[in-house]
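Ticket #4471: structure output looks truncated?

Reporter: J.K.
Steps to reproduce: submitted the chain below (584 residues) through the standard prediction queue, then opened the result file.
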Amino acid sequence: MADLPSDPLISLVTVAAEQMGYSCRATEPDELRLVGPRGDGPHFLWLHNLRRRLNEQPFEQWPGLIADHVETFLARVDPDYADSLATDEFLTVRGLLRTRFASSDTIAGIDIVGRYVAPGIIQVMVIEQLLTAEAVTTDQLDEWQIDSTELFELAEANTRAAGRLQIEWRNFNDAHFAILSGSDSASAHSNWLGDYPVIGTYGALFVVSHEGNVYAHPIVGPNALTAMILLGKVAANTYRSEPRPISPAVYWWRDGEISLAAITEVDPDHNVEVRPTPEFEALLTSLAVTCEFAVVPAETVDTALDALEQYRQMCIAPDNSANPPAVDDLIAEIDRNGGAVGFVAAAADSRGAVLRTWGPNRGQHLLAVLKLTKDRDLAVLDVETGHLYDPRGRVEVHVTVGDGRSLPYLTRALLDDFVVAAADPDDPFLVVTRADETYIRTRRHEWVYEIEHRAGSASEHFRVYTLRHTVARDVIWAWACGDPSWMVAVQWRRVDPTSPGIEAASGLEILQDELSSAGSDLSADALALLDTFLAVRDTPIPSTDLAATENLAIDPAILRELASSHTEEARPIETEKPDDPDET
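Returned output as attached by the reporter:
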């Protein structure tokens, strides 16, 4: 027997091979050259996987494990060592076909049947026996005369039919992840993560650092960042230490597709850096954008300042008293299905609750919170904007505001805020809807309010102009409440589909609408101001001469004075409808 290398593993493998009649010589680190008793071979045995597997076992068990490993290897590579399976017969092996993931780097240049999955990993086909798994080669594929796509479908069906993986859940820094195991083809199940309860709103993060285990995290909120870093460290470390390594990267499963989520790098001090791809980093950024809402019993606050103070107290001095029943009920519902609308936290005490949400769609979050609170008599403070939403006295209609907000109800206080607030001149800044094509809306341009309503179709579309926010407010509120007084409060005109609307409305149209609306008593001064405003509005600017332009300008303060110069006393509105149906 030749002198044995000092490495215990190489020594023991050499002894085992020679006992089986093979000469054995180390050619490279962790590579042995074996030649059979009749000179057949050479056969090359790599020790990377065996060394990693043995590192987890007591040394006294090594000789037996090594002998089994060498015998299994020789049975696979040397037909003369033992009777081997006739893999050239497709009917013989079709039930043994399985799929697995493999590293696209380590098998580069090897003649096997595989297909691309994602950067760093490919799906390969193997013939799985009791102790071995032999990769299918292109020569075998040609011999079987079967299409590779059909063969992969068969191998995948066999793999899935062999049984589901077992799931064990772990938690680390509030990032839950699952370990899926229980099969020598566990990696292949990454293709079918949707069959397992590990998929979140945005799919799942997973790693297949080595064969036998899949680590997965459902993506539902900001803790995806923590999970990505955790899984990246697991992947980088186990890829270097476990048998049958596949990939040190982190992958993203969504809607049945797999893409790269992050790459990992290990520095000389064994620190792991996890860097997301631009696409996954964009998702992380959107998940990190949060909104905060204070939810309090409506009867405990009258103003947004009251609600803000309660929010401040809940944040700096939470108490342990019993929560209001409505708040407990709210928290229970969020626990049941809050992930669907992006809730990540719900801290509560005797004064109310602080809700935090993730995701960039503020309007969606606000709508979700208002739907959850409106029937529980809970007021909502949007902490960032300072808006208070008190559901008392509400009318159940759908409200859309020009800044993107959507509300499931309208109150008189909210309507005051919406009508008086600044408007985008290009879009309706307030739309109140009962059903498709049944709505009332208003917008403001140069201190003139346009009010439109539609009653089911384009032929029932009417418009009116006014300079008074109180008219716009009262008409919309009456419409929302089902009070028919809105129909005769102003002189509605049928909308011409070709009409450009408020931006091109003539001064005469505005004046006629203003004088015909109920309670339109104008003082002499107000009427003079109105004439001045409309004259300026209808006068085209003759040139770009700045002096001429300044002479035509009108002080916005005058317009505000005009808007407040009308008689504001409440007047009964006649409910008798006009005879001409076109004027309704």
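Triage note (M.O.): checked the attachment and the full token line is present. Residues 224-241 form the longest helix (18 residues).
Status: closed, working as intended.
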